[in-house]
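WARN no homologs supplied; continuing
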Amino acid sequence: MANHSPLRRTLTRTVGYPLEALAVRTLFRLLGWLPADTASDLGGWVGRTLGPRLGGNSTVLRNLRRALPGLDAAAHRRLARDCWDNLGRTLAEYPHLKTIRAEWGQRVELSGTEHILGLETDGMPGVILTGHFANWELVAMTVHKCGLRMTAIYRAPNNPSVDKLLAEARGDLGTDLVPKGRTSAKGILATMRARGILGILADQKLNEGIAVPFMGHDAMTGTIAGDVVVRHGAVVVPVKVTRQPGGARFRIQAFPPLDLPALTGDRPADIRAVTVAVNELLEKWVRESPSQWLWTHRRWPD
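OK structure emitted
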């Protein structure tokens, strides 16, 4: 079996990736011909119709049972359908991100911009903290609408051509995207030294992180927010996206800087304390809007 691994990898790169990119490009083109709200509604229908039939639905239901044990099986199934609906909408909205930006005032109810703008004037490096809620791509757009630049750490798709298609869909938002990996540490350090703004999606499992409670269970959690707070004095501004009725329409809330524990000088303990505070906030958001969070991720050990 191992002897076939190099061949399989080569076929994936030379055949699989181009076919996958062609499929994504074709899908984006077809969805782009539709009005934004229609594309969003269609994506939601496809998601809630097909999602529960996919193998990944077992992960969604397992996560829901673990995180929300007080709900019965029927409620878990409803939330799973809602999760797939939101994911389908989010994917179908990629070809319309530029439309959403152009029609921002009609599609987005935004509050708390003063907290984002404060990151430019307080003289300290900043963090925009968010998670995979509703259409999380709109967080970078929000910072751009505030006239600020941001460096965002993200997990690049395995397929470089798909990564390029997603970048084209996002357009120029004044955001420097840094893939997770060897180069991300340099990007983070450069941003902090320049007293810039770092965007973090902090709700996914990171095996290199630390075990911190999340939704009642320990979960391996990245410590980027804790690191930059403890090492660089960064100010953390949470931003949450909530989907609204009517298609591609949203409420975006920027909150006051996160109230963090006082630093003690014990760096590992301080980083852990900040990470705990981050998870507590994200847990609060999940409980407020469980249908709009990305439950497809394997957040906890099986």
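Residues 2-292 form one domain.
OK
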